[in-house]
Every structure is written in C-alpha cells, then in structure tokens.
Request: fold
Amino acid sequence: MENSKKDWAIILGGSSGLGLASAKKLASKGMNICIVHRDRKSNIPEFENEVAKLRENGVLVKTFNKDALKREVRNQIIAELPKNSVKLLMHSIAKGSLKQMNASEADKLKKQDFDITIHAMATSWYEWTQSLINMERFATKARNIAFTSEGNTRVWPGYAAVSSAKAVLEALMRNMAVELAPLGITSNCIQAGTTKTASFTVIPGSEKLAEMAKIRNPFNRLTTPEDVANAVYLLCKNEADWINGMVLKVDGGESLR
Reply:
C-alpha cells in the first residue's frame, strides 16, 4: 500500500459489519474508499456519520446506495473511478435465503432461492471482477477478496442456500487465482470466525451459535469486525503479493475445535 493515496478500494456491502470495519482500517492507512450498499432510509444518517469519519483520514470516499447486482449500476460506479486505480475489490454482500428444506410448501427452500443467493453472494463477485478488468480499472498487483464462512462445510438449520453460495464463492476464488494471475491480480477468501454482524443475527439460532463459538474459541471470545479488517489490510500490503488462492481463517483458532 505504498502508493495508497492513489489507490481505491471498492467494498460491496460496506455500510456495516466486516465491510465497514475494513473501510475504516483501509481509510486510516490512506486508501480511497468506494462503498456500494443497499440500506433503508432510516439507516442512512448513521451510515453518513461513519462516512464523515472515513473522510477525516484525508481520503476520498464515494458511496452508492444502489443494487450492486445490476449490470448498469456496476458499470456506472466503475466508470466514476480512474483507470488503473482499484487496488482492492472486496465482496461482502450478505443477501440470501435462510429457508429450510423441511418446511411447509410456502416456506420451503426452492430453486429460485438458490439462484438468488448464489448470484448475490458468489457469482456477482465474478461479474464485478470482469467489469473492472474490461474497463481497465484494476491497479498493478490488485487484490480480489471475498468473505466466506465456516458454513461452507458445516450444516446449520436454514443455511443450505448460503452454504451453497459459499462453496461456489470458494471455487470461483481458486479459479480466478489461477486464471487472473497473468493480469497481476491475486484472489483470496477470508473465513472469519463467528462475528456478531447484522447478517449473522438473522441466522436462525444465531445466539446459540455465538455461545458455542465462544466455548470453541481458544481465546474464549467472538471474532470482531476489526479482527477481520486487520487481515484485509495485511493482504493489501506488498508483503502479501505471494498469497493467492487461499482461504485465510481469521478466527483465533475457533475452527480447530
């Protein structure tokens, strides 16, 4: 991040949780921030306060309260950034179905639920990546990072669609890591430990999951958004140039038990 004053980070889903924490960390280190989010009007004042704090770091900040899943929105946002300036594309979109397979017909998980979830939480990452490449926005030695979870291999009630999306996300990461390496782009996933974010609290039984995570964690605490943001920052440093195609666990050892 030695040239960070010229670098931009695009954070998809950056108005709260891991995305916002990462924006704060990167802005504190001099990186310009572009946040794409989808929030109700009632949440905007709080978010704008956070944006004001980001700007106190002397960086440029752009925000777009628009649907990141639409092609025209994606292209419009990318067009507003200078060529060869995007050091980081971070995918932190949390939009998916939490329906269960064994439920009433009206509430049962269906194919369209999988389609919506996998696009929002996985393949949209690839679409943004390709648009940035086509529009020549990626900087030299760019970073491509997405957030996965332990639910990629574990079974939680109502998590089937999201779990499937995370599996697709990780498969995309591995393939992009190989196929985009000639372009100087590294692709990695961060598997955060259990973190109390807005998206986590809507998971059925989230409180019980949090209690279990504290017991499993060698440090007897949950992962914080700041823990994860620190790892994002480390991956953006020049010393991380050779980290590619990895699922980096940032959980204090929680997943070992």
About this structure: The helical segments are 17-28, 44-55, 71-79, 111-134, 160-179, 198-201, 206-216, 225-236. The radius of gyration is 18 Å. Strands lie at 8-12, 32-37, 61-65, 86-91, 138-148, 186-192, 247-250.
